[in-house]
Amino acid sequence: MTTDPALLARITALEDERAIIRLQTAYGYYVDKAQWDEAADLFARDATLEIAARGQFRGQDRIRAYLKCLPGLMPGTVFNHMQLQPLITLNGDTAQGRWRAIMEVAIAGAVDMVGEATYENAYVREANVSGEPVWKIAKLHCYVTYYADWQKGLAGGGVPMGRELPECPPDAPQTVDYDSFPAVYVPPYHYPNPVTGRAWSA
Protein backbone atom coordinates (compact mmCIF):
# COMPACT_ATOMS: atom_id res chain seq x y z
CA MET A 1 0.00 0.00 0.00
CA THR A 2 1.32 3.45 -0.91
CA THR A 3 2.50 5.91 1.72
CA ASP A 4 2.82 8.83 -0.69
CA PRO A 5 0.73 11.63 0.95
CA ALA A 6 -0.24 13.18 -2.38
CA LEU A 7 -1.42 9.88 -3.80
CA LEU A 8 -3.29 9.01 -0.60
CA ALA A 9 -5.05 12.38 -0.74
CA ARG A 10 -6.11 11.76 -4.34
CA ILE A 11 -7.43 8.29 -3.46
CA THR A 12 -9.35 9.70 -0.49
CA ALA A 13 -10.88 12.41 -2.67
CA LEU A 14 -11.99 9.87 -5.27
CA GLU A 15 -13.53 7.68 -2.57
CA ASP A 16 -15.34 10.67 -1.06
CA GLU A 17 -16.70 11.76 -4.42
CA ARG A 18 -17.90 8.24 -5.17
CA ALA A 19 -19.58 8.00 -1.74
CA ILE A 20 -21.44 11.28 -2.32
CA ILE A 21 -22.58 10.18 -5.78
CA ARG A 22 -23.81 6.90 -4.26
CA LEU A 23 -25.62 8.84 -1.52
CA GLN A 24 -27.46 11.15 -3.91
CA THR A 25 -28.27 8.33 -6.31
CA ALA A 26 -29.76 6.34 -3.43
CA TYR A 27 -31.96 9.34 -2.61
CA GLY A 28 -33.35 9.26 -6.15
CA TYR A 29 -34.16 5.56 -5.95
CA TYR A 30 -35.91 5.91 -2.57
CA VAL A 31 -37.99 8.84 -3.84
CA ASP A 32 -38.93 6.72 -6.89
CA LYS A 33 -40.60 4.20 -4.61
CA ALA A 34 -41.96 6.62 -1.98
CA GLN A 35 -39.68 5.05 0.63
CA TRP A 36 -39.73 8.17 2.75
CA ASP A 37 -38.04 6.81 5.87
CA GLU A 38 -35.13 5.49 3.83
CA ALA A 39 -34.81 8.85 2.08
CA ALA A 40 -34.96 10.81 5.36
CA ASP A 41 -32.25 8.60 6.87
CA LEU A 42 -29.80 10.03 4.29
CA PHE A 43 -29.97 13.51 5.84
CA ALA A 44 -27.75 14.97 8.57
CA ARG A 45 -29.29 15.86 11.93
CA ASP A 46 -29.39 19.60 11.17
CA ALA A 47 -30.00 19.32 7.44
CA THR A 48 -32.33 21.52 5.43
CA LEU A 49 -34.60 20.58 2.53
CA GLU A 50 -36.18 22.93 0.02
CA ILE A 51 -38.07 21.66 -3.03
CA ALA A 52 -39.75 24.00 -5.53
CA ALA A 53 -41.74 26.67 -3.67
CA ARG A 54 -42.82 24.52 -0.74
CA GLY A 55 -40.64 26.34 1.76
CA GLN A 56 -37.69 25.17 3.81
CA PHE A 57 -37.74 22.29 6.29
CA ARG A 58 -35.07 22.20 8.97
CA GLY A 59 -33.68 19.13 10.71
CA GLN A 60 -33.97 15.45 9.89
CA ASP A 61 -37.22 14.99 11.84
CA ARG A 62 -38.99 17.80 9.98
CA ILE A 63 -37.65 16.55 6.65
CA ARG A 64 -39.05 13.11 7.45
CA ALA A 65 -42.42 14.64 8.33
CA TYR A 66 -42.52 16.58 5.06
CA LEU A 67 -41.61 13.55 2.94
CA LYS A 68 -44.36 11.53 4.60
CA CYS A 69 -46.89 14.17 3.47
CA LEU A 70 -46.13 13.20 -0.14
CA PRO A 71 -48.18 10.51 -1.93
CA GLY A 72 -47.38 6.86 -1.38
CA LEU A 73 -46.60 4.36 -4.12
CA MET A 74 -49.61 2.32 -5.19
CA PRO A 75 -50.92 0.69 -8.37
CA GLY A 76 -51.26 3.28 -11.10
CA THR A 77 -48.50 5.60 -9.85
CA VAL A 78 -45.02 6.47 -11.15
CA PHE A 79 -42.59 8.80 -9.32
CA ASN A 80 -39.28 8.40 -11.17
CA HIS A 81 -36.44 10.77 -10.15
CA MET A 82 -33.26 10.25 -12.18
CA GLN A 83 -30.19 11.95 -10.65
CA LEU A 84 -27.76 12.96 -13.44
CA GLN A 85 -24.67 15.06 -14.23
CA PRO A 86 -23.01 15.22 -10.80
CA LEU A 87 -20.41 17.92 -10.22
CA ILE A 88 -18.91 17.49 -6.75
CA THR A 89 -16.66 19.96 -4.94
CA LEU A 90 -14.90 18.60 -1.85
CA ASN A 91 -13.72 20.63 1.13
CA GLY A 92 -12.52 18.35 3.92
CA ASP A 93 -15.51 16.97 5.81
CA THR A 94 -17.96 19.04 3.77
CA ALA A 95 -18.81 19.13 0.08
CA GLN A 96 -21.15 20.70 -2.44
CA GLY A 97 -22.78 19.12 -5.45
CA ARG A 98 -24.82 20.16 -8.47
CA TRP A 99 -27.14 17.67 -10.15
CA ARG A 100 -29.82 17.46 -12.79
CA ALA A 101 -32.99 15.49 -12.07
CA ILE A 102 -35.40 14.19 -14.72
CA MET A 103 -38.81 13.46 -13.20
CA GLU A 104 -41.73 11.37 -14.40
CA VAL A 105 -44.88 11.69 -12.31
CA ALA A 106 -48.08 9.84 -13.14
CA ILE A 107 -51.25 8.91 -11.31
CA ALA A 108 -53.47 6.85 -13.60
CA GLY A 109 -56.49 8.81 -14.76
CA ALA A 110 -55.40 12.02 -13.04
CA VAL A 111 -51.78 13.18 -13.47
CA ASP A 112 -49.37 12.72 -16.39
CA MET A 113 -46.29 14.96 -16.08
CA VAL A 114 -42.62 15.17 -16.93
CA GLY A 115 -40.24 17.58 -15.22
CA GLU A 116 -36.66 18.66 -14.77
CA ALA A 117 -34.84 20.26 -11.84
CA THR A 118 -31.39 21.43 -10.79
CA TYR A 119 -30.11 20.49 -7.36
CA GLU A 120 -27.55 22.61 -5.53
CA ASN A 121 -26.80 20.50 -2.47
CA ALA A 122 -24.38 20.39 0.44
CA TYR A 123 -22.98 17.33 2.19
CA VAL A 124 -21.29 16.68 5.52
CA ARG A 125 -19.39 13.79 7.03
CA GLU A 126 -21.27 12.77 10.18
CA ALA A 127 -21.40 9.67 12.37
CA ASN A 128 -23.93 6.98 11.48
CA VAL A 129 -25.83 4.83 14.01
CA SER A 130 -22.68 2.74 14.52
CA GLY A 131 -20.54 5.80 15.17
CA GLU A 132 -18.72 5.53 11.85
CA PRO A 133 -18.21 8.73 9.82
CA VAL A 134 -20.27 8.67 6.60
CA TRP A 135 -21.40 11.28 4.10
CA LYS A 136 -24.91 12.65 4.60
CA ILE A 137 -27.01 15.29 2.87
CA ALA A 138 -26.63 18.59 4.75
CA LYS A 139 -28.72 20.70 2.36
CA LEU A 140 -30.99 19.64 -0.47
CA HIS A 141 -32.23 22.50 -2.64
CA CYS A 142 -34.24 21.44 -5.67
CA TYR A 143 -34.84 24.24 -8.19
CA VAL A 144 -37.60 23.14 -10.55
CA THR A 145 -36.88 24.11 -14.16
CA TYR A 146 -40.18 22.87 -15.54
CA TYR A 147 -43.12 20.56 -15.16
CA ALA A 148 -45.20 19.87 -18.26
CA ASP A 149 -48.18 17.76 -19.21
CA TRP A 150 -46.90 14.73 -21.18
CA GLN A 151 -49.69 15.03 -23.73
CA LYS A 152 -49.30 18.80 -24.34
CA GLY A 153 -45.51 18.92 -24.14
CA LEU A 154 -43.48 21.99 -23.25
CA ALA A 155 -44.98 23.92 -26.17
CA GLY A 156 -48.32 23.57 -24.42
CA GLY A 157 -47.03 25.56 -21.46
CA GLY A 158 -45.69 24.55 -18.08
CA VAL A 159 -47.54 23.12 -15.12
CA PRO A 160 -47.02 25.32 -12.01
CA MET A 161 -44.45 23.89 -9.61
CA GLY A 162 -45.40 22.77 -6.13
CA ARG A 163 -46.31 25.31 -3.47
CA GLU A 164 -46.61 24.99 0.30
CA LEU A 165 -48.66 22.01 1.50
CA PRO A 166 -51.42 23.10 3.92
CA GLU A 167 -51.10 19.81 5.81
CA CYS A 168 -47.33 20.24 6.20
CA PRO A 169 -46.33 23.90 6.61
CA PRO A 170 -42.60 24.64 6.29
CA ASP A 171 -40.30 25.94 9.01
CA ALA A 172 -39.43 28.96 6.85
CA PRO A 173 -40.47 30.40 3.47
CA GLN A 174 -38.55 29.46 0.34
CA THR A 175 -35.11 31.07 0.41
CA VAL A 176 -35.04 31.98 -3.31
CA ASP A 177 -38.00 33.60 -5.06
CA TYR A 178 -38.27 32.20 -8.59
CA ASP A 179 -40.73 30.56 -10.97
CA SER A 180 -40.40 27.57 -13.25
CA PHE A 181 -41.06 27.41 -17.03
CA PRO A 182 -42.19 29.44 -18.89
CA ALA A 183 -40.17 31.72 -16.58
CA VAL A 184 -36.39 31.43 -16.73
CA TYR A 185 -34.16 31.12 -13.66
CA VAL A 186 -30.57 29.86 -13.44
CA PRO A 187 -29.69 28.50 -9.97
CA PRO A 188 -26.31 29.93 -8.87
CA TYR A 189 -23.37 27.62 -9.49
CA HIS A 190 -21.47 26.75 -6.33
CA TYR A 191 -18.24 26.32 -8.33
CA PRO A 192 -16.14 28.66 -10.48
CA ASN A 193 -15.68 28.09 -14.19
CA PRO A 194 -13.22 25.16 -14.33
CA VAL A 195 -11.20 26.78 -17.15
CA THR A 196 -11.25 30.51 -16.38
CA GLY A 197 -11.61 30.28 -12.61
CA ARG A 198 -14.27 32.99 -12.64
CA ALA A 199 -17.02 32.73 -10.05
CA TRP A 200 -20.64 32.64 -11.17
CA SER A 201 -22.30 36.01 -11.58
CA ALA A 202 -25.99 36.37 -12.43
From TrEMBL:
SUPFAM superfamilies: NTF2-like (SSF54427). Signal peptide: none annotated. InterPro entries: NTF2-like_dom_sf, SnoaL-like. Residues 13-140 form the SnoaL-like domain. This is Nuclear transport factor 2 family protein. It comes from Novosphingobium ovatum.
